[in-house]
UniProtKB/TrEMBL annotation:
PANTHER family: PTHR34269:SF19, TRANSCRIPTION FACTOR B3-DOMAIN FAMILY-RELATED (PTHR34269). InterPro entries: B3_domain (IPR051442). It comes from the Eukaryota. This is Uncharacterized protein.
Length: 181
């Protein structure tokens, strides 16, 4: 029975179209990067697919160039996957605020996180914000290093976003009508 349970759970995991998921918080979305805390899921589904040379570069605190394919918009972006010490992610203090003795970041200085940079163009284009869930999956093969990306969950839309959605639908309808003429 144990073998069957193990086999079934493994099969269920591999059938997941987005094996690495991340619910966005203010801590994840940085000025020009996406901070990814180290986790078993990220290592198993993303890092394990890198070739040995790329893993050595990443372990030596270097950057590895990968492509991100946005599965929702069919856009491809060249980005760098980087392993950084935790202090790189310390938030900037507000103007006039003095730095206290308390650490505002939950990691120690000898801990690390992964970063995908630049990520600002994806944040702006997809209007990414807190409480949204995004997913990544590895789709590359040697020598191509590619991650697929998708927005999996968006909380209920506020009035501003509803207006933008309506304007985009009207624009698309007009654009299609112009092509048909």
């Amino acid at each position: 029975m144990k073998f069957k349970e193990k086999f079934c759970s493994t099969a269920a995991e591999t059938m997941n179209p987005w094996p690495f998921r991340l619910k966005l918080t203010r801590d994840h979305i940085r000025w020009d990067s996406l901070k990814i805390p180290p986790s078993r899921d990220f290592e198993a589904h993303i890092l394990e697919n890198l070739d040995e040379a790329s893993r050595r570069v990443l372990d030596a605190w270097g950057s590895v160039q990968v492509s991100i394919f946005d599965a929702d918009t069919c856009d491809t972006h060249k980005v760098n996957l980087v392993k950084k010490k935790a202090f790189w992610f310390e938030p900037f203090p507000d103007v006039g605020q003095r730095k206290g003795k308390q650490k505002t970041f939950s990691c120690n200085d000898d801990e690390f996180a992964y970063s995908i940079e630049p990520f600002k163009m994806i944040v702006k284009k997809r209007n990414l914000s807190c409480d949204q869930e995004i997913g990544f999956r590895w789709s590359g093969n040697y020598p191509v290093k590619r991650l697929d990306f998708s927005v999996l969950y968006v909380p209920s839309l506020d009035m501003y976003n509803l207006k933008i959605e309506r304007l985009m639908l009207v624009w698309e309808r007009n654009h299609i009508e112009e092509k048909q003429i």
